[in-house]
Design goal:
Blueprint (H helix, E strand, L loop, with lengths): L4 H21 L7 H10 L12 H11 L4 H8 L8 H6 L12 H11 L1 E2 L2 E2 L2 H12 L4 H13 L5
Antiparallel strand pairs: 1-2
Helix pairs in contact: 1-2, 1-6, 2-4, 2-6, 3-4, 7-8
């Protein structure tokens, strides 16, 4: 499968950021660093076929067909933003299921992805502004983003 160069560069950057976030949390939690690294490297594999929000579903299907471990498939499927609850997923044309990251590894990869614009790191204010301009400043995804940031970044300080 051929992925665009920008997807590969972005995925490498997300992996490095996810590892960095994990190291900051490692004294507080039992994090599977190998799972974080591998999940981050393939989190956007669905972008090889589509660039829409559906890329997470496509990526999960690709990994299932290649018999990847369920833990990695879940990272790919649940990495969209700070997660999408079932009701919002339906409204967005996604399958009728919950796309909220559950495990610490899923949360780390999702947030590492949030904190990168292409392969460049950005701060939380950049992300909030980007999401607010796309979805509206009162969209529930903004609150989920801030909560995830507090859990993954602020709690590690």
């Amino acid at each position: 499968m051929n992925c665009p160069e920008w997807v590969i560069n972005h995925s490498k950057a997300v992996s490095l950021k996810a590892i960095s976030l994990s190291k900051n949390l490692s004294d507080k939690s039992d994090i599977d660093m190998d799972l974080v690294e591998k999940g981050a490297l393939v989190h956007d594999i669905g972008r090889c076929m589509t660039n829409g929000i559906y890329h997470a579903v496509v990526g999960a299907k690709i990994l299932k067909s290649e018999e990847y471990p369920l833990e990695i498939i879940k990272i790919v499927e649940r990495h969209i933003g700070a997660g999408i609850p079932k009701e919002e997923a339906i409204e967005m044309g996604l399958p009728a299921k919950d796309f909220i990251p559950q495990t610490l590894e899923e949360k780390i990869v999702a947030h590492a992805d949030n904190l990168l614009h292409g392969d460049q790191e950005v701060d939380i204010n950049f992300v909030i502004e980007k999401w607010s301009s796309r979805m509206g400043k009162d969209h529930p995804s903004i609150e989920r983003l801030i909560k995830l940031h507090q859990e993954i970044v602020i709690s590690s300080k």
